[in-house]
Amino acid sequence: YFTTGKDSLEVYSFRELGGQLGSALLTEGNPLLMHYLMFIPTLIGQGTAEQQTIWLQKAWTCNIIGTYAQTELGHGTFIRGLETTATYDPKTEEFILNCPTLTAYKWWPGGLGHSANYAIVFAQLYTQDKCHGIHAFIVQLRDEETHDPLPGIKVGEIGRKLGMNGANNGYLGIENVRIPRTNMLMKNSEVLPNGTYVKSPSSKLTYGTMIFARVVLVEYAVILLKRAAVIATRYSAVRHQSQIYLNGPEVQILDFVTQQYKLFPYISMCFAFQFAGSWLWNTYNTVNEELKFGQLDNLSELHAVSCVLKAVSSADAAEGVETLRLACGGHGYMTSSNLPNIYGLVTAVCTYEGENTVLLLQTARFLIKAWQNKTNMGKSPTLKYLEMPLEENIPFERSVNWIISTLQQTVVSKINLVNHHINERVKNGETYEDAWNNTSIELAAVAVLHGRTFIVETYSNTVSDFQKKVSPELRTVLQQLLELYAVYTILRSTGDVLRFTGTSRKDIEVIQLWLEELLASIRPNAVGIVDGFDMRDEILSSTLGAYDGNVYQRLFAEAQKSPLNAEPVNKSFHMYLKPFMRSNL
Fold first, then answer.
1. CA-based Rg of the chain, rounded to a whole angstrom?
2. pTM above 0.85, yes or no
3. Which of 17, 313, 369, 436 has the fewest CB neighbours in a 10 Å radius?
4. Which residues are known catalytic residues?
5. Can you identify the CATH homologous superfamily of domain 8-197?
6. Is-contact 191 181, C-beta < 8 A?
7. Residue 65 DSSP symbol
8. What residues contact residue 258 under an 8 Å CB cut-off, 6+ apart?
9. pLDDT tens, 564-585?
10. Which tens digit of pLDDT belongs to each residue from 457-494?
């Protein structure tokens, strides 16, 4: 997206601003993130060559700052329900944009509150007295010199949030604002000067930008999980507390198996999501090239995989960051540990660019459709395993391949059962829509398991590819981490595995012992593995996770910076506490 014909220094600057260095400089969120992540890609993906000539260079050099105004106060993931309108006036060849209600106000776009002076606004297109659905429009919000809001534009910041308070998320109200006809992004569909609407060859062509965002978010979730894993693992090596032997010394808490169980699966998960994210990125680029030639065959599968990977990676990373914070005890609750901030950033990913439950149901719809049309399953690489026979007996063996096959068998059986439940509900008089809604808990669950199964398989394939490229020592560690993620994944699904496959209780006991052996094997290398993530202290910004291990000195030094320690007696004592203490209440 960001290399074609662009100066390499600008590309490098973007990657740094959006990556590790940017996160160190802008710890509470980046107000330019939507400019690079959504505004520019939308110009590329949905703008004509002429529109890109006008807008892209301005955006790339930051002569204008843009944001992506889609979500409204009253509507989020359900894009078809957006209320903002764009009505074409053929007399002036202009669109009139309007937010007819308070709930139509755009709400949440990053950078909108104070930074952006342009936005790509999504609105219902009306022309020749007919609505043609959601389309994208370039709207100027503020004067390019004074930054004052333009007439008809009501813009501001939405207030403090759990995290990302540096992103100045904003609101936008539009009251009968006119923009030129050419400000509608017309690469896929078009409004002619006389108001005639020219339909896009496929509605799916507008998926591109949102898929791109989800690809990036998978990688972003990995970065945040890695950060928390480094902090918690290093702290666990420094912290000595409690005894293993009655008269023995206090040990590193990293020696407790319960602590290892809090840490090591999430270290392994960092690799799992990184490899899955790389697969997604490469596939996205391939499909994006195909779209240029009108090939849409693989777009639906990419959309389904991007949905489930975004949902699973963000949810599991958020769970991981919270578990890693808890693994640091009370000190993990300190803001100076940076774990609360990391959690605020990662949990936001569960909601934006598609709320996770909605994304899981979109993947489930793809799975059910494929199951009902089994002749096409072999054409989708991520669904080939759905062709395996139901209730196939897979003899137990202690291997990653067995885990993958067993998880796949579980997914196949669950999809079959979910499809049966939908059909039974329809047979009993429910509409298909009601049947779908009433089965949605099962549908979301099968999508999650499909996603995790895909991640384990991708992890295994990637490690296999590394076998001849890395040292024997690294090969051993990568294999241990792969096995740990695979074992951890199947144990999370013990109920379904026992329910849908021939796996026995004894098999589960063997897997549990395997888990404990893996924790012991990884223990000697745990700190070295997270050091290999190569995150500088400035990136971690944590009193607990610094490379030198001086946790207690750093905690105390940070405490001294509190404004409440500026004087020995705070003025509040004389103003409030002393009168209260002497009031004999």
1. 27
2. yes
3. 369
4. 353
5. Butyryl-CoA Dehydrogenase, subunit A, domain 2 (2.40.110.10)
6. yes
7. -
8. none
9. 999 999 999 999 999 999 998 8
10. 999 999 999 988 999 999 999 999 999 999 999 999 99
